[in-house]
Amino acid sequence: MRSANPSLPSVHFVGHGDSDSATSRYRCINLVDAITAAGGSAVFSYRYSADFKGVEEDVVVLHRVLWDTDLEPFIADLRRAGKVVAYGLDDLLFDPEWPIKETAEYFPNQEEDRQLIWNHIFSLHQGVLKAMMLCDCVIGSTELIAEGARKLGKNAFCIRNFLGNEQTRLSEEARRDHPLRNEKVLAGYLSGSKTHNADVASISKPLGDVLHANPNLTLLMVGIVEVPAELQGFGPQIRRIPMVDWKVLPSVIATLDFLVSPLDLTFDFNHAKSHIKWLEAAAVGVPAVVSRTSEFELSIKDEETGFMAATDSEWVEKIRKLADDKSLRIRMGAAAQKEAVASYIATSMSSEVVAVFQEIADRHLKATKDTGRVTFEITRVAAEPLKKPRAVLGPFRFIGKAWRAVGGAFRGEI
Questions:
Q1: What predicted TM-score, i.e. pTM, was given to this entire model?
Q2: Hey, CA dihedral for 270, 274, 276, 279, is it positive or negative?
Q3: Which residues make beta-bridge pairs with 187?
Q4: C-alpha span between 299 and 279 (Å, rounded)
Q5: Mean pLDDT value across the chain
Q6: Contact 167/250 with Cβ under 8 angstroms?
Q7: CA atoms within 13 Å, Cβ hemisphere of 388
Q8: What whole-number distance in Å separates Cα of residue 402 and Cα of residue 410?
Q9: Tell me: the pLDDT tens digits for 321-334?
Q10: Mean pLDDT (whole number) for 31-42
Q11: Among candidates 115, 130, 48, 128, which has minimal Cα distance to 89?
């Protein structure tokens, strides 16, 4: 499909196999919305296949597509047809210094589950790294991801996460239908899987201190994350609901008075996480307290469009402020919502997104067409496994099983 505006490069996004995952939505579908808003042309195919033929677009983005034996000739064919092949990522999955064995042990599971997790992480790491190195350039969701790719010699760009058209519409409807508040104050924590257990545990003491001091405060935990031991004695002050569909999520967030979004920053991987949790809350006018990272610092004006915290005392102080001050919650939520719409929806991001793809096309479309396969060497392999990995490359048959073992549906995210 050619661009409606012939001066703009057309783009074809190819997903990793799940058309309804958060990663496909934020890194493929939402970018299609932004490019279309600028008068360009973009399409999304949710699954890579060796039989994938007839690509018309100028730039092909392989989003988290894992290496297999068919991928190298597929990319070579695209290059011979004059296409630019970019690799899309929203996590630091390729880092050669990623301590994979330690990552598997990081999750509090039984030994058998940890072995499955190890297989999953090793397969994901190697599959992403090999596929990424075959591509012309990398598009990351945070600057830390782009910087990591540059360290491996790749030309890399950053397009930060933003809301697509449907998410924006649903968020505005939820904000407009914001329910009347009860006397109780409802804080929320959102999680997609047990892999975030350590995140919420990292602020369990501050949360417990505030809950103990304020019996009027309730914490709603969304998803299958485990309640930390420090919070298990609070009875009705801790509420649970299962993970909800993304189309329902804005309405759930809109019931909150404020959101907490901690990250376990002892784990380097988490420093490259994006601002999605703040953004989804901001879009419905709900303020948030988040971990202080370089990514959140780009999005949030501390004490104006949200709170950032780095120590237990800061978490206590800022959670307490939002729990105690309704006018502050309303003021901060409104400021966050204004910033989200002004900066982080498809229409407001369209010029920036198109500019990135224009630069990619300018740099790479003029290059000599590749007539063969790309070869490269991985200079560092992962740490020793817990046990000998079973078929960690090739069909990656353990990935879905490993993910289900920790209680999540496989969505290609950690």
A1: 0.85
A2: positive
A3: 219, 258
A4: 9
A5: 84
A6: yes
A7: 2
A8: 9
A9: 999 999 999 999 99
A10: 97
A11: 128
